[in-house]
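Data deposition worksheet. Section B asks for the primary sequence of the deposited chain exactly as it was used as input, without tags or linkers unless they were present during the calculation. Section C holds the resulting structure in token form. Section D is free text for depositor observations; keep each observation to a single sentence. Incomplete worksheets are returned to the depositor.
Section A, Depositor: J.P.
Section B:
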Amino acid sequence: MTLSSVTGVKSLAISNTTAAVISSFTSIAGPSVALSATNVPLNSTVNFQILDTALTGSADAASLTLAGVAGAVTVQSSGSQDIESATVTATGASSSPSTLTIGDSSGTTITSLTVKGDGKITFPLMTGVKSFNATDNSGGVSFTTQIGAGSTATMVGGSGADTLTGG
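Section C:
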């Protein structure tokens, strides 16, 4: 669904997809739109594409809520402008997305990830994330980052049973 002619959108949600379905929202006006994916089974894909022209500077942040997600989720720009940070809120049923890409059209570019909510979430490997904060999550988080030699990462867990790994 292309949203290039739609104005005033505050949130976009996709829920209850069936297997092998690709659901896409393109030309989203900016990163301030709250994005949500619920009950997305394995072998399904949800794509949210933010207009490249809406991403300027070095502090663009995306907001994503996940519940019961096993499929792939992508939040990206329509071009080379980056999304630098993201907040993922885990609610309801446990989520373990097969892939989670947040960044520009070439892949994940976020360096900062915040996790909130009362849901349990298992993240796939997220390379390049140097700041991870799950203080506001009580459901439990499993997270692994790979940042490369000579780099440091800061990871803070929440009140759930968290597993945080850096490398």
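Section D:
The chain has one domain: 11-166.
The longest strand covers residues 61-69.
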